[in-house]
Amino acid sequence: MKTQKYTTKTKKNRVFIVDDHCILREGLSHLINSEEDLMVCGETDNVSDALQAIEEAEPDIVIVDISLADGSGIRLTENLVYAHPGLCVLVLSMHDETEYAERCLKSGARGYIMKQESSRNVLSAIRKVLNGEIYVSDKLNVTLLHKFVNNKFESFDSSTKPLSNRELEVYQLLGQGLKKHKIAEQLNLSVKTIETYIEHIKIKLQLKGTHDVLMHAVKSMY
Predict the structure, then answer these.
(1) Residue 153: its pLDDT value, please?
(2) Torsion of CA 54, 132, 101, 126, to 10 degrees
(3) Which of 8, 96, 112, 151 has the fewest C-beta atoms lying within 10 Å of its C-beta?
(4) How far, in Å, CA of 142 to CA of 147, rounded?
(5) Helix (H) or strand (E) holding 57
(6) What are the start-end ranges of the H helices in 115-204?
(7) What kind and span of H or E run contains 100?
């Protein structure tokens, strides 16, 4: 599946969904379209089609997953915010917020919510971001406040913190089971460049070899 568009005569806040799980997209679309002030204006399951589809759909907010079949939702967020400075981006992910939330916010997202959250919280997150607020969980908000009070607002403890966004993208694709040549093809890079990234990942995460990098990446997906 590539992209779909939706239309309505009612003036509502327009939501675009980027997620490679069909069932989740369908459930999220149903949830959003059931609200009087929200509507899904389009969706896509991959990074490659997202920029053009979002350009055409003109959403008020984009909901992005971190791990997509052909790339990283974090890099997509960076590209979206660069191309559309006023566009709201909310990350909806299965990944632990302590690992990825800060990185997503630094990339330009206006909120981070985990897929385990209730439907009510997802809708609350969407509306808060649309209202110009930053959305994170209560637990993460407390962590942020403590770091601010103690002048330790630099970053969260995270096993993937040392990785650059591109290294994290390669790491996530490894975790999804993709081989080096397939990752190179998807990211439009050479296999040698991917091997260099893997070597950087190994050093930064203090792992012994490529196999350890692979196992570490796979475990991070669950």
Answers:
(1) 44
(2) -60
(3) 151
(4) 9
(5) helix 47-57
(6) 119-130, 138-149, 165-175, 180-187, 191-204
(7) helix 97-106
